[in-house]
Amino acid sequence: MEKYEQVKRHLKDIIFNNFLGGIAWGLGATVGVSIVIAILSLILKNINLVPFVGNFVSQVTNYVLQNNPQLIK
Description:
Blueprint: H1 2-7, H2 11-47, H3 50-67
């Protein structure tokens, strides 16, 4: 019986531990994604693809604004 009492935890402890684990997972995922994006942007900067991406975004923006003039205020 003593082994069972040592294994059994209160609901508050379980919820608190899972909450902290979720916060740690979210923080770790955010930091990891930001590092990956930073590395990819450095690689793209050195490959000189950024002007191509910038031109593409500019063309998409111009297309959207020409087809939806109510967006311009």
